[in-house]
Amino acid sequence: MQNLNPFSRKTIPYDRISKEFSENDGGSGGQSSSSDPFLAQKEKHEDEDDFLRFKHLLRLRSLRLRHACSYLFVALLSLLVGLILGQFFGLENDIDGYLTPYGSTHRNIRDVVWWENKTFTAEPSEESEKAWMSVIPIGRGFIDHPVLAPKQMKCVSVFHELHCLHGIRSAYFRNTYMLSKTRHQLAHLFPSSRSPLNAPNDHPHMPPTPFVSNPYLEEVLKHLPPAHLNAEHINHCFDYIRQALMCAADSNLEDLEIDPSDGELGADGWGIKRTCRNFKAVFEWSEKWRSGDSDGIA
Fold first, then answer.
1. For residues 126-138, b (16+ Cβ closer than 10 Å) or e, as one string?
2. Is 292 in contact with 142 (CB distance < 8 Å)?
3. Mean pLDDT for each 10-residue chunk of the chain (298 residues)?
């Protein structure tokens, strides 16, 4: 009697499997897709669709790549332009608003017109001295700054230049006043004196200016001349201002006019439009970073 084992693995002989596979393959061979026009046409359409989809994907990829390159180019160009503009327009603001001597011109003031201000040209008086002192900031232009002057105090040049100009002016009026006063006194003490101080007028068409006492200068002359009015300092100031003018090299163009008194062609510099540095900004910056609270121009 045959032993039955329901758990035994059923096996199929290899030759039987091979035979069944061959029969199935042969049975389906007569129905191949190549012999069916409908299936062939369907496969052709599918291939075309696949090609079109692939072509579309390539086009999208190429378009995205071009867009990416365009964005990258614009970004790099913007960065370059920003760096260039930063050099020209941001340089003067990079240290607390400091106007660098070599900075760009965008912070200049245009269409400034100069007119004579006789307060600054008149003989020394309380009014004229206040006017001169008004162009010097508190601290007199001496500054302390963590970046620009980290180790020792420094001075802003324009206020040194104004100090020197004021010194020359003070020495001039002091000496001319003393000379005029001496001539006036000698003329009354020695009417017939042949002293050079009382020499006849060399220009008869220009009558001598009568001496007028100046109370402010009279008070000044009671004291010894300050150190900044000695000859050595005045000589320094002449050359210092010369070099300062050449350093600034003001290139504004001035109109020429004929002087009606002598017919000479010349320029007084008044009444024309100029482009100027922003003195007010320099003044305010110097006052902000001042090293002390001293004032005055002398």
1. eebbeebeebbbe
2. yes
3. 49 52 49 59 70 76 80 83 63 68 75 95 96 97 94 96 96 94 87 57 60 94 85 96 96 93 91 94 96 93
User: SS3 for 125-143, per residue?
Assistant: CHHHHHHHHCCCCCCCCEE
- According to DSSP, residue 187 is labeled H
Distance of CA 10 to the CA centre of its chain: 96
Instruction: Give CA–CA dist 8/185, Å, rounded.
Output: 152
What is the pTM (predicted TM-score) of this model?
A: 0.66
- First-to-final CA distance of the chain: 140
Strand, helix or coil at 101? Answer: coil
3-class secondary structure, 109 = strand
Contact 226, 166 (CB under 8 A): no
Query: Cα–Cα distance between 213 and 184 in angstroms, integer?
Result: 11
